[in-house]
Amino acid sequence: MLNKKTLLKFSASIWCNPCKELDKIILATDLGDIDYNEVNVDEDPSLVKYWNVRGVPTLLLLDENEEELKRHTGLLSPVGLQNFVGYDPDALDDQEEEHLALKEPWKETW
Question: In terms of DSSP H, where are the helices of the chain?
Protein backbone atom coordinates (compact mmCIF):
# COMPACT_ATOMS: atom_id res chain seq x y z
CA MET A 1 0.00 0.00 0.00
CA LEU A 2 1.43 3.36 -0.99
CA ASN A 3 1.96 6.11 1.57
CA LYS A 4 1.66 3.69 4.49
CA LYS A 5 3.12 5.35 7.57
CA THR A 6 4.50 3.80 10.74
CA LEU A 7 4.59 5.28 14.22
CA LEU A 8 7.66 4.01 16.06
CA LYS A 9 7.71 4.63 19.82
CA PHE A 10 10.92 4.35 21.81
CA SER A 11 10.24 3.83 25.50
CA ALA A 12 11.38 2.27 28.73
CA SER A 13 8.06 1.14 30.12
CA ILE A 14 9.46 -0.34 33.34
CA TRP A 15 11.09 2.80 34.74
CA CYS A 16 9.73 5.67 32.60
CA ASN A 17 6.45 7.15 33.89
CA PRO A 18 5.92 9.45 30.86
CA CYS A 19 6.31 6.35 28.66
CA LYS A 20 3.52 4.63 30.60
CA GLU A 21 1.27 7.68 30.20
CA LEU A 22 1.98 7.86 26.47
CA ASP A 23 1.06 4.16 26.18
CA LYS A 24 -2.39 4.97 27.58
CA ILE A 25 -2.81 7.91 25.21
CA ILE A 26 -1.78 5.85 22.17
CA LEU A 27 -4.17 3.03 23.11
CA ALA A 28 -7.05 5.49 23.55
CA THR A 29 -6.39 7.47 20.35
CA ASP A 30 -7.51 6.56 16.86
CA LEU A 31 -4.43 6.77 14.64
CA GLY A 32 -6.28 5.92 11.44
CA ASP A 33 -4.35 3.49 9.25
CA ILE A 34 -0.94 4.21 10.83
CA ASP A 35 1.02 1.11 11.84
CA TYR A 36 2.32 1.25 15.41
CA ASN A 37 5.46 -0.39 16.79
CA GLU A 38 7.18 0.01 20.14
CA VAL A 39 10.91 -0.31 20.85
CA ASN A 40 12.09 -0.89 24.42
CA VAL A 41 15.34 1.06 24.73
CA ASP A 42 16.63 -1.31 27.40
CA GLU A 43 16.19 -4.34 25.16
CA ASP A 44 17.17 -3.02 21.72
CA PRO A 45 20.05 -0.53 21.99
CA SER A 46 21.03 -1.09 18.34
CA LEU A 47 17.77 0.55 17.15
CA VAL A 48 18.24 3.36 19.67
CA LYS A 49 21.66 4.04 18.18
CA TYR A 50 20.47 3.64 14.58
CA TRP A 51 17.68 6.21 15.04
CA ASN A 52 19.83 8.43 17.30
CA VAL A 53 17.27 8.47 20.12
CA ARG A 54 18.47 10.58 23.05
CA GLY A 55 15.46 10.49 25.41
CA VAL A 56 12.24 8.65 26.10
CA PRO A 57 9.50 8.59 25.16
CA THR A 58 10.41 9.42 21.56
CA LEU A 59 8.01 9.06 18.64
CA LEU A 60 9.18 8.73 15.05
CA LEU A 61 6.79 8.94 12.13
CA LEU A 62 8.19 6.95 9.22
CA ASP A 63 7.07 6.80 5.60
CA GLU A 64 6.63 3.59 3.58
CA ASN A 65 10.41 3.53 2.89
CA GLU A 66 11.20 3.83 6.61
CA GLU A 67 12.45 7.38 6.14
CA GLU A 68 11.88 9.67 9.12
CA LEU A 69 9.14 12.24 8.52
CA LYS A 70 8.79 13.65 12.06
CA ARG A 71 10.20 13.22 15.55
CA HIS A 72 8.83 14.15 18.97
CA THR A 73 10.28 13.52 22.43
CA GLY A 74 7.98 13.71 25.44
CA LEU A 75 4.27 13.39 26.09
CA LEU A 76 1.52 14.37 23.66
CA SER A 77 -2.19 14.85 24.25
CA PRO A 78 -4.56 12.71 22.15
CA VAL A 79 -5.14 15.68 19.81
CA GLY A 80 -1.42 16.40 19.70
CA LEU A 81 -0.78 12.77 18.78
CA GLN A 82 -3.39 12.88 16.01
CA ASN A 83 -1.83 16.10 14.68
CA PHE A 84 1.63 14.52 14.83
CA VAL A 85 0.59 11.56 12.67
CA GLY A 86 -1.51 13.70 10.32
CA TYR A 87 -4.81 12.13 11.33
CA ASP A 88 -7.85 13.35 9.38
CA PRO A 89 -11.06 12.85 11.40
CA ASP A 90 -13.18 13.84 8.38
CA ALA A 91 -11.99 10.68 6.63
CA LEU A 92 -13.85 8.48 9.14
CA ASP A 93 -17.00 6.68 8.13
CA ASP A 94 -20.01 6.45 10.49
CA GLN A 95 -18.97 3.10 11.95
CA GLU A 96 -15.50 4.36 12.85
CA GLU A 97 -16.95 7.50 14.45
CA GLU A 98 -19.06 5.34 16.78
CA HIS A 99 -15.97 3.29 17.65
CA LEU A 100 -13.98 6.48 18.33
CA ALA A 101 -16.65 7.72 20.74
CA LEU A 102 -16.19 4.58 22.82
CA LYS A 103 -12.49 5.40 23.20
CA GLU A 104 -13.21 8.81 24.75
CA PRO A 105 -14.99 8.07 28.07
CA TRP A 106 -13.98 11.44 29.56
CA LYS A 107 -16.48 13.16 27.25
CA GLU A 108 -19.34 11.48 29.11
CA THR A 109 -18.43 13.32 32.32
CA TRP A 110 -18.50 16.85 30.84
Answer: 17-28, 45-50, 78-85, 94-102
